Automatic annotation (TrEMBL):
It comes from the Eukaryota. One of its GO terms (biological process) is wybutosine biosynthetic process. This is JmjC domain-containing protein. InterPro entries: Cupin_8, JmjC_dom. GO terms for molecular function: tRNA binding.
Length: 285
């Protein structure tokens, strides 16, 4: 398996301000990058568990609760618990219990908005917010908690504020053979330290493991034209043109299924080949 070192950009050394122009250049490049030496994002001292308990004392949380540190969305080896007092949650996380916060909005249908939902925390940080931010999500995990491999359809900044977190990333090009062909898979494993910000381009598969008590905030933002996004609470709904294409594809499959198996096989293959040609053309532009 080919392992590639992820690029790190030291913001202070390079005198870079994170602004929308810089963000557009990252999106254009389409590669994961760690931004390090960011100002005022390392909360190791300010957000010790007892400080967090005080700052979040009025919060009731919707959390993931389970018995296995490897959370798996497909087998749902956890349950959701609502109205969980933040103090109980934080102390349980600190003692290593399987609890995980992926913050939700004020009401179930609201998008998470870290600044609005947790003002006592957000006022401590100098967290940048891209102009086209979709949602900002607070994530708190115990030591050794692993999050399943997945991709999101929005671009993302994952900001590490307390503790270390390992992140494994896979290029979307490897989607078809992530598990099968190690030779062709590109694997990028990295450790995020407090103050690091990882840019995860849309569609890059990622999974994480907290090395210790960990607090992160992730910011989903949009980079396709607005009209391509549907209503989406979690940042993982396919762009509308993809949903449209899927409907056409479904129609194509129904049409081809009228034919005898030999014809079906031949024409599925033939249409598959033309789809591959189309993507080659796109790549060479
Ligand atoms: C994301 O930012 O999309 C993640 O999946 C982060 C999960 C985590 O670090 O807890």
């Amino acid at each position: 398996m080919k392992s590639v070192r992820i690029r790190r950009i030291n913001l202070q050394q390079k005198q870079i301000n994170i602004n929308d122009e810089f963000i557009s250049s990252l999106v254009e490049e389409g590669q994961p990058v760690i931004l390090e030496n960011t100002e005022n994002l390392d909360m190791t001292e300010n957000w010790k568990v007892e400080n967090l308990c005080e700052k979040m004392k009025d919060c009731n949380l919707s959390i993931h609760k389970g018995g296995n540190l490897t959370l798996d969305f497909r087998t749902k080896n956890f349950e959701y618990a609502n109205k969980y007092p933040a103090g109980d949650f934080l102390r349980e996380v600190a003692s290593g219990k399987v609890r995980y916060l992926r913050s939700t909005g004020a009401r179930r249908k609201d998008l998470p908005d870290f600044e609005k939902d947790y003002p006592s925390l957000s006022s401590d940080l100098n967290l940048f917010k891209p102009e086209r931010t979709h949602s900002q999500i607070l994530r708190i995990s115990p030591k050794d908690l692993e999050i399943w491999l997945h991709y999101d359809t929005l671009d993302n900044f994952l900001t590490q504020t307390v503790g270390e977190k390992e992140v494994l990333l896979f290029n979307p090009k490897d989607a078809a053979n992530l598990y099968l062909d190690g030779d062709k898979s590109e694997c990028i494993g990295e450790v995020l330290k407090p103050g690091d910000v990882l840019f995860i381009p849309a569609l890059w598969f990622h999974c994480t493991k907290a090395n210790n008590f960990s607090v992160s905030i992730n910011t989903f933002f949009k980079s396709l034209p607005d009209k391509m996004y549907g209503k989406d609470l979690y940042g993982n709904r396919d762009p509308l043109p993809v949903e449209d294409a899927a409907k056409h594809l479904q129609k194509a499959i129904i049409a081809l299924k009228q034919l005898p198996p030999t014809y079906q096989h031949f024409y599925f293959h033939k249409l598959g080949i033309s789809a591959a040609c189309l993507s080659d053309n796109n790549n060479s532009k």
